[in-house]
């Protein structure tokens, strides 16, 4: 259905396989404009499996990924996506290098005839198809690729095409290696029987729980030797793959002065007067609002409560404000009143963007289909089945069913809600040209169109300078951790913590443009105090309190969480002794529960494959013990996640016989093969001895 089609595609970001970005460069010749940030060829962003990665090579890959995003997103790439492009580039290079060593060792090659088949054969590589797809027909143009190859020597993009082909070779060799590994996956009879048992064998049990919370923390003493033993026994839990930092910091707001407030009020009062006098309200709104939103019709209670009260039943042209909200001065004006529906039933025919839907040709084709329907020579449903590029709705004659507000992209919604039942409307969106038939509209009632012109209230430059001077004075007397705390308390500032920062992390939650603070944290020494950083309308001073390099985290950094775990272990020992004592001489679970003054909870249909107890949560150890026990026998105490359990299994059912062993085995092997690719890459990556210095450059 189009509702899914539009919703999913509207925010969809595709970063293709290695080499997709190169396609974008062949099309736009952006390669020639690429400029490295550093001219020093010896600047390295890292090392992968002994191979150094220069800034020039890595940054070129980042730019390729950014260009690919622009191609996929229509030229607009949000700033936060730069970090994603960089991470994608790093993972691409890791994949290429670690797999190259394995494919060479395994003797895996991609021959020239095989490469030629990938480019010009009967089933070209998807990247080649994407590059040489006819934009008008949406079909792969085999002649176009032949012409391109035949004239390659005269083509300025020759070097880029060679790079592209090399990437095709690399991708194919990696896929061969993965196929070789996954081809070795085999599900034994024991494995499929165990899996079937875990999924279909059920248990009915009665359980008693003694929560850890029933033992007071103060009654449990945790020694340093206990903490050290737990750390050494569970050291694998505290191994990290990346360098991390923890900072504490204070934030000093830039406070507007009285003069700033007076100037803002004067500005908004003039704006309100001009808005009252304006005759071209929509143009005035577009020219003056800091925040621009589509001017849609809103029903009763859909508006901001202040505006709902002041404007919903007011005459057209009524102005409300100025008023202050969300750090902005605002003025609202009632532009129009009309009756609109809550939901619309419609069907459509889509001429997709890949078939010229965003060109005049798409509009012309939609008009042609519209005339055919209006003349009675063809039905909408039949044309939708054969002509619509939205195959989901097309198979149903274009039917979209009923949909409400904000379920379609704005242009589509406006056409469907503003038209009348029975109308055929042609509209273009980012997905192509749509021919829409409005079939029905429900709950038609009064709605108003209100334009809100806002002016963000921000401090003046003088106020910023005064706040910056105050922040510098705060830093001036700080020399170490102790003086940072003393200065913070004296200034009555609240210290905030940001932990587990990574070298390539771009943001600190709650702070704007905080990348420079992260970079400082990875260049500083422990207990260093930063200079003053600007973050929007705030100034920030940070103190580096923890350095956690990759590998095993030092005990001192994880001591608090280990202390909690050890205390829980000691509580479990105490509660287990209570259970053992209550079990002595008890003939049933009810008798044990009575001695413990705890309720017996019956549970039906417990499954080993889903170890969750209602109202308690996941308890894998408990379920493992249940399915390894005998029916009718009161268990020994089991230390779980939430407390100590004791139970009795009333009976087991199943497991159900496997109806089709061959089919079941194939499904198990398919899961194994799917997980083997990621598992293979992760294993090779762990052995690659990766040095990541990207944080010094980005």
From TrEMBL:
Keyword field: Cell inner membrane, Cell membrane, Chaperone, Isomerase, Membrane, Rotamase, Transmembrane, Transmembrane helix
This protein's record includes keyword Oxidoreductase: no
InterPro entries, alphabetized: PPIase_dom_sf, PPIase_PpiC, PPIase_PpiC_CS, PpiD_chaperone, Trigger_fact/SurA_dom_sf
Domain PpiC: start-end pairs: 341-440
Name listed for the protein in its UniProt record: Periplasmic chaperone PpiD
One Pfam family, short name: Rotamase_3
Cellular-component GO terms for this entry: plasma membrane
Transmembrane annotation, as ranges: 12-31
GO molecular function list: peptidyl-prolyl cis-trans isomerase activity
Membrane-related topology note: Single-pass type II membrane protein
Localization of this protein: Cell inner membrane
Organism superkingdom: Bacteria
Family the UniProt entry places it in: Belongs to the PpiD chaperone family.
């Amino acid at each position: 259905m189009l509702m899914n089609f539009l919703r999913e595609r509207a925010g969809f970001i595709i970063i293709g396989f290695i080499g997709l970005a190169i396609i974008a460069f062949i099309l736009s010749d952006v390669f020639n404009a690429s400029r490295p940030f550093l001219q020093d060829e010896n600047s390295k962003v890292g090392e992968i499996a002994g191979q150094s990665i220069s800034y020039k090579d890595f940054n070129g890959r980042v730019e390729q990924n950014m260009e690919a995003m622009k191609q996929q997103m229509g030229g607009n790439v949000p700033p936060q996506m730069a970090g994603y492009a960089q991470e994608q580039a790093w993972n691409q290079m890791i994949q290429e290098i670690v797999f190259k060593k394995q494919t060479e060792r395994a003797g895996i090659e991609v021959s020239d005839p095989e490469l030629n088949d990938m480019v010009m054969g009967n089933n070209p590589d998807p990247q080649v198809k994407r590059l040489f797809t006819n934009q008008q027909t949406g079909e792969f143009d085999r002649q176009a690729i032949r012409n391109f190859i035949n004239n390659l020597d005269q083509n300025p993009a020759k070097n880029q095409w060679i790079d592209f082909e090399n990437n095709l070779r690399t991708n194919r060799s990696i896929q061969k290696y993965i196929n070789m590994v996954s081809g070795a996956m085999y599900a034994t009879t024991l494995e499929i029987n165990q899996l079937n048992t875990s999924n279909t064998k059920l248990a009915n049990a009665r359980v008693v729980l003694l929560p850890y919370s029933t033992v007071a923390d103060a009654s449990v003493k945790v020694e340093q030797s206990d903490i050290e033993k737990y750390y050494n026994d569970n050291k694998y839990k505290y191994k990290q793959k990346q360098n991390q930092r923890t900072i504490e910091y204070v934030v000093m707001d830039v406070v507007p002065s009285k003069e700033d407030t007076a100037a803002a009020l004067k500005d908004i009062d003039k704006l309100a007067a001009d808005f009252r006098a304006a005759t071209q309200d929509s143009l005035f709104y577009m020219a003056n609002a800091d925040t621009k939103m589509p001017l849609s019709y809103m029903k009763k209670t859909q508006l901001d409560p202040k505006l709902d009260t002041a404007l919903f039943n007011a005459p057209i042209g009524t102005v409300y404000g100025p008023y202050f909200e969300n750090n902005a001065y605002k003025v609202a004006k009632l532009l129009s009143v009309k009756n609109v529906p809550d939901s619309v039933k419609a069907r459509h025919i889509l001429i997709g963007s890949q078939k010229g839907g965003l060109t005049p040709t798409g509009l012309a084709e939609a008009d042609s289909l519209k005339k055919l329907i209006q003349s009675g020579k063809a039905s909408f449903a039949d044309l939708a089945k054969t002509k619509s590029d939205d195959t989901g709705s097309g198979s149903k004659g274009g039917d979209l069913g009923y949909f409400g507000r904000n379920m379609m992209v704005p242009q589509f919604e406006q056409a469907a809600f503003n038209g009348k039942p029975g109308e055929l409307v042609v509209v273009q969106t980012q997905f192509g040209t749509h021919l829409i038939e409005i079939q029905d509209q429900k709950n038609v009632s009064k709605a108003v169109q209100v334009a809100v012109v806002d002016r963000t209230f921000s401090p003046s430059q003088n106020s910023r300078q005064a706040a910056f001077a105050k922040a510098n004075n705060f830093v001036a007397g700080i020399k170490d951790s102790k003086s940072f705390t003393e200065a913070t308390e004296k200034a009555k500032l609240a210290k905030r913590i940001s932990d587990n920062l990574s070298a390539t992390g771009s943001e600190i939650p709650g702070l704007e443009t905080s990348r420079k603070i992260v970079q400082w944290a990875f260049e500083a020494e422990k207990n260093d105090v930063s200079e003053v950083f600007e973050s929007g309308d705030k100034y920030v001073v940070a103190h580096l309190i923890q350095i956690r390099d990759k590998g095993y985290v030092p005990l001192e950094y994880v001591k608090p969480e280990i202390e909690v775990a050890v205390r829980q272990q000691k509580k479990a020992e105490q509660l287990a002794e209570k259970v053992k004592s209550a079990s002595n001489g008890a003939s049933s679970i009810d008798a044990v529960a009575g001695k413990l003054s705890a309720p017996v909870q019956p549970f039906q249909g417990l499954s080993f494959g889903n170890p969750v107890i209602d109202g308690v949560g996941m308890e894998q150890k408990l379920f493992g013990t249940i399915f390894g026990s005998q029916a009718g026998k009161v268990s020994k105490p089991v230390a779980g996640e939430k407390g100590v359990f004791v139970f009795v299994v009333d009976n087991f059912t199943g497991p159900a016989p496997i109806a089709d062993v061959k089919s079941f085995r194939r499904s198990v092997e398919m899961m194994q093969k799917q997980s083997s690719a990621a598992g293979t890459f992760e294993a090779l990556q762990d052995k690659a001895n990766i040095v990541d210095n990207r944080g010094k450059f980005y």
